[in-house]
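Milestone 3.1: sequence recovery, worked example.
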């Protein structure tokens, strides 16, 4: 309960008590007793507010990129969306905290994954994890560069695996998630805040930032913190791997160097190292001098270090050379080996 809510509640009780007092008795003593009761209630409410709001702890949350404030009223986000087939575009929720003299914040996410990114490159990072503690320090100007990136990895997997055919089929408890923040200030004051996020039917997200009280059911908060990872391991460029899967999700082997387009269910492109910006699929007809043509581009924003191209991308390919490019930035990319894919039914 915040201060405004308590104030409104006291106001409502005051009206009811005064009205009842006048109706019950016309005596002056009744009015004074009502006033005394109201004063006592107001003092009690004020004491409750002081207990619920630690002195000196004022922390706000803002969406990274747009600087939209997250509040207890909630905010819709379309910076990242999920389709019914589990394709994620953009980042559903990236946020940062601001305040005065934050010493450290311990982050715990219940169902999905979170990634801490220090754009100043002064603090340890953890990759995608569920619990970790971030030191903030006295430089408040750096706080907006300490970004938490929430990733709905389990929701994506459930849709891609066919466990659910549409977002509407996902139970409400699996659509929602919570990030609990245990905040310690430089003077020793502490507070607990939380961001709750929910996936909507249209694939967008809704997030709320408010005070939070850790309860017995919040066992995810007691998980051990993730260990920091070397920055070069998180952001290095590694290898690329391609898996061609049939319609049942089993890995296929080429027949005389060729994959039958009619039997392919999906193609999974994975990589090691840091998260790239995008993955592109190229194809060129065999026996021609035509350059590789871009068939599709997917944003790489999942914690799985992989993207999946469904069978719709290979249907109709008649003897093509297919390759994939993982783009990390304008100068760093990985290119896969060439796959021979075609309609072999004839």
């Amino acid at each position: 309960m915040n201060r405004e809510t308590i104030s409104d509640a006291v106001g409502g009780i005051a009206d009811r008590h005064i009205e009842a007092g006048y109706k019950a008795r016309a005596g002056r003593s009744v009015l004074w007793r009502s006033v005394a009761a109201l004063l006592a209630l107001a003092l009690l409410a004020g004491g409750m507010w002081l207990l619920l709001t630690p002195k000196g702890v004022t922390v706000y949350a803002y969406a990274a990129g747009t600087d939209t404030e997250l509040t207890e009223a909630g905010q819709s986000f379309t910076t990242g969306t999920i389709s019914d087939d589990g394709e994620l575009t953009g980042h559903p929720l990236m946020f940062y905290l601001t305040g005065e003299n934050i010493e450290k914040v311990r982050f715990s996410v219940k169902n999905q994954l979170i990634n801490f990114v220090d754009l100043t490159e002064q603090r340890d990072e953890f990759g995608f994890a569920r619990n970790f503690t971030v030191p903030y320090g006295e430089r408040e100007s750096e706080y907006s560069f300490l970004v938490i990136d929430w990733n709905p990895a389990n929701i994506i997997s459930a849709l891609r695996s066919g466990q659910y055919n549409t977002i509407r089929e996902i139970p409400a408890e699996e659509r929602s998630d919570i990030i609990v923040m245990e905040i310690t200030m430089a003077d020793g004051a502490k507070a607990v805040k939380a961001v709750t996020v929910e996936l909507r039917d249209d694939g967008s997200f809704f997030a709320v930032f408010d005070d939070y009280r850790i309860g017995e059911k919040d066992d995810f908060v007691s998980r051990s913190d993730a260990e920091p990872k070397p920055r070069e391991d998180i952001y290095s460029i590694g290898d690329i791997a391609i898996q061609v899967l049939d319609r049942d999700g089993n890995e296929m082997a080429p027949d005389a160097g060729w994959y039958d387009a009619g039997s392919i269910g999906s193609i999974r492109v994975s990589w090691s190292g840091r998260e790239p910006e995008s993955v592109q699929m190229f194809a060129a007809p065999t026996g021609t001098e035509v350059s590789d043509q871009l068939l599709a581009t997917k944003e790489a924003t999942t914690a799985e270090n992989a993207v999946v191209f469904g069978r719709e991308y290979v249907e109709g390919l008649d003897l093509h050379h297919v390759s994939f490019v993982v783009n990390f930035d304008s100068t760093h990319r990985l290119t896969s080996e060439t796959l021979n894919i075609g309609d072999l039914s004839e």
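DSSP finds five helices and 23 strands in the chain. Confidence is low (pLDDT under 50) at residues 1-53.
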